[in-house]
Design brief:
Blueprint: H1 3-23, H2 25-32, H3 34-48, H4 53-85, H5 89-93, H6 99-129, H7 137-165, H8 172-184, H9 197-202, H10 205-214, H11 226-255, H12 257-261
Helix pairs in contact: 1-6, 3-4, 3-6, 4-6, 4-7, 4-8, 6-7, 7-8, 7-10, 7-11, 8-10, 10-11
Length: about 260
């Protein structure tokens, strides 16, 4: 395997997502408009309730995380959806690329879009609500990397579901993030969840990344090393999901699903 060729193939999908985003007004909306609307609505609710600064930070961190995660994971999901919608998936897979070139290339562009959305939201938080979301720069970078890994997890899961269930799984691209955030404690601590659901929440890496970031605002995490647990769970989940994706792609090829997507 030639590493340089693999890098070029991967970056080809980064460039493809960039071109499609540049030409599509609605994908620009996903980066610029909806994240700000979400932050504004939650921030104004916090102002109306006259929340103390650390509690305002708690809910705004949830709003920022939801927006950055959604923007980043959509690019990973789009790498298959764009081909399915244009009925060109069969032609993509006859080229000498792998599913991982597609995933990582799209993920890189998702990271860029997510980082831009994060910067916009940080500036809005400071200007509109007087809240500094960059109080610990090194911790913020770790937190962002955790969100981007979570975006890869959700995007890979969506791609696997598309290959297994076909068009019926399209809705996963827009709903999985909301379900994950509901379980991970978007505006509340996970301890409020009922037993059984709470244990499931602690198996999701994003729960630990949220606790890690909120610990800078005096909210004690449930473990002594939330970032470590978050990254450990992320890499274990990604390894498992990559195996599922390879199996789903092989199954889709044998059953003719790839051809059906192109008709």
């Amino acid at each position: 395997m030639n590493l340089r060729n693999e890098i070029y193939k991967t970056l080809g999908f980064t460039y493809r997502n960039f071109i499609i985003t540049k030409r599509n007004f609605f994908t620009l909306f996903e980066t610029l408009f909806w994240p700000v609307i979400g932050l504004l609505s939650v921030g104004l609710m916090g102002a109306y309730l006259n929340l103390e600064e650390n509690y305002l930070a708690f809910i705004l961190i949830g709003a920022v995380t939801l927006s950055v995660l959604q923007v980043s994971q959509l690019d990973v999901a789009y790498v298959l959806l764009f081909d399915i919608w244009s009925k060109s998936l069969r032609y993509t897979f006859v080229t000498p690329i792998s599913i991982f070139n597609m995933l990582f290339g799209a993920w890189l562009f998702g990271v860029l879009r997510g980082f831009i959305a994060f910067l916009i939201l940080v500036i809005c938080s400071e200007l509109l609500f007087g809240l500094n979301l960059l109080i610990q720069p090194a911790g913020v970078l770790l937190f962002l990397f955790g969100i981007f890994l979570s975006a890869m997890i959700i995007g890979t899961l969506t791609c696997s579901l598309l290959l297994i269930f076909g068009y019926r799984a399209e809705v996963a691209a827009w709903t999985l993030t909301a379900i994950f955030m509901l379980l991970c404690g978007i505006y509340y601590p996970v301890a409020l969840l009922p037993p059984g659901v709470r244990e499931v929440a602690y198996m999701i890496p994003l729960t630990h990344f949220l606790e890690f970031y909120r610990s800078f605002y005096n909210f004690p995490p449930s473990s002594s090393s939330p970032a470590f647990f978050g990254f450990l769970l992320s890499f274990l989940l990604l390894f498992f999901l990559f195996l599922v994706l390879v199996w789903a792609l092989d199954r889709a090829r044998r059953r003719g699903t790839i051809t059906q997507f192109s008709e």
